[in-house]
Amino acid sequence: MSSSPFRAKPLPRNVRLLGWASFLNDVASEMIFPLLPKFLLSVLGGSKLWLGAIEGVADTLASFVKLWAGGWSDRAGTRKGFVVFGYALAGLVRPLIGLITAPWQLLVIRNADRLGKGMRTAPRDALIADSVDAQTRGRAFGFHRAMDHLGAAVGPLVAAAFLALWPKDSAWLDPEKQLRVLFLLTLVPGLIAVGLLLFGLREAKGGTPAGEVHTWSLAPFDRRFRLYLLALVIFTLGNSSDVFLLVRAEELGVAAPLLPLLWCAFHVVKSGGNTLAGRLVNRLGSRPMILAGWLVYAVIYVLFGLAAGAWQAWALFLSYALFYALTEPAEKTLVANLVGSEHRGLAYGWFNFAIGIATLPASLLFGALYDAFGALAAFGTGAGLALAAAALLLAVREPAAAAAR
After folding, report:
1. Whether residues 18 and 139 fall in one domain
2. 80-93 and 13-32 helices cross at what angle (nearest 10)?
3. Which has the closest alpha carbon to 217: 226, 228, 227, 209?
């Protein structure tokens, strides 16, 4: 008799450590991120153009580094060094935001932070896949994404509590000082994450076999994986930054002070959803779950365009978390199912690169449609691209052995 997916053996040590590292890293990151626009505009004297340039350049850099680091981890036959270095770089440079005085310095730090993200992401995903058997991949990736989202929910709460408890004496009542001290304190969770990985993480079997030519191209992969990447690019072109959902929520009447609470609740639901859905990936198959998630996305995006009240914004935001739960563990599991272990790092590099290069044009397209034609046109276009991607994904056949229940 098969065991229940909800009463399975504990996940391997590597998966648990990487989950906690992502939790701590996201606590630190999200302590800063919601306050970064205010800090740039009010304290550093930057502009919205600076904000767009900083985030756009940083994310583009991370996309290319993910591809490089994933392929190089195959060639080096090691993942741990890339993962530890990536978390350490981000953890050490992020608090320096509390010391800077000019927008260009923020650009440098954000790029160093994203460089760290690029260095660790593909090798980390490959290490998770290397550390579990095929039947546990979905649950492993679900756990990791759940911890990531939980950290993203806790970080803003920590920041809010810190600012609320800040001394109210006149000598201390300085908003700029508050933000700078908060940013410096993000060093603490960052160092704890690095310590956990440095002393606890173990290498797992993986890498390019001796004598095999190493490449950063798509040559090692078959038509199925390439179609999957194309489907991801098409979907991502319709998947703009979630910041537009916050804009839409405010348009629908959600009060500005409640937006952080909505954002926190969104991440809590994503965390719980990933934990549950990740356990079902190998029972239902990666591709069916991705298809279901993209269909849910299309429906919710159309409803975002048609919504007319604040309560609908809350309901749709929390329902939108279902899309993440269905797709995040399944998308990464499908990568491992479609490729061999010898090129797994490179495969995750291409996976993250494909999503990364489509993210910036996706947000530009969405913003242009939103400004020119309104919410329904923007959200409707996103829904249409999701359906087109789902149609293409139907042509990607998951290996029978990997999809077995």
Report:
1. yes
2. 20
3. 226
Instruction: Give the CATH number for residue 393.
Output: 1.20.1250.20
Asked whether residue 108 falls in the same domain as residue 223, the answer is no
CA dihedral 356, 357, 363, 364 (to 10 degrees): 160
Q: Which two tokens stand for residue 392?
A: 């293409």
Q: Are 146 and 277 part of one and the same domain?
A: no
Query: Residue 293: how many CB atoms within 10 A of its CB?
Result: 23
Residue pair 301/316 in contact by the 8 Å Cβ criterion? no
CA dist 361 → 23, 87, 186, 357 (Å) = 29, 27, 31, 8
Q: Give residue-wise pLDDT tens across range 287-313.
A: 999 999 999 999 999 999 999 999 999
Q: Does any domain span residue 262?
A: yes
Mean pLDDT of 74-85: 91
Tell me how many domains the chain contains: 2
DSSP label at residue 40: I
Query: What is the pTM assigned to this prediction?
Result: 0.82
Instruction: Say whether both 228 and 192 belong to one domain.
Output: no
